[in-house]
Amino acid sequence: MNTPVTTLDQWNSDQDAVAAGWDETRRVLESAELFWISTVRADGRPHVTPVVAVWSDDAIHFHTVVVEGDAVQVTNEDTLKRLAEAWATKWDGRWRLSTRDGGFRNLNMNDFPSLVFTVTPAKVFAHAKGDPFGGSTAGNCTSTASA
Known about the structure:
The chain is mainly beta. It has a single domain, classed as Pnp Oxidase, Chain A (Roll), CATH 2.30.110.10. It contains two helices and eleven strands. Strands 4, 5, 6, 7, 8 and 9 form a six-stranded antiparallel β-sheet that branches. Strands 1-11-10 form a three-stranded antiparallel β-sheet, with no helix packed on it. The protein has a two-stranded antiparallel ribbon with strand order 2-3. Strand 2 and strand 3 form a beta hairpin.
């Protein structure tokens, strides 16, 4: 992945704010326990939902039974195993997942199956906390990772 260029959204920012750097943004993505996934339904209506996800291979990966919107399904067994290991580090190890039939099985929920999806960001929007507040965008993200 090329290092994204961060810029400050002056319209939503304090005059003394500075753009968050990509290293700081990536650290937040790596440590986040919950992500909000936004998609668009076929009829154009937005859909937003919180999901447990992991940052791995320069992309956000999540799994669920139903997904609205464009995402790429992950079925490669080696990638699924690596992602299951990444999920095991989240929330004190409560996400115990095995892989089978091109997806996850949740060992804590009677081997419940779920599909796995990946979204490689084209743009990341972030807001700094504290004073001065500021909105920044990391753009021009390109990735050589595949799932």
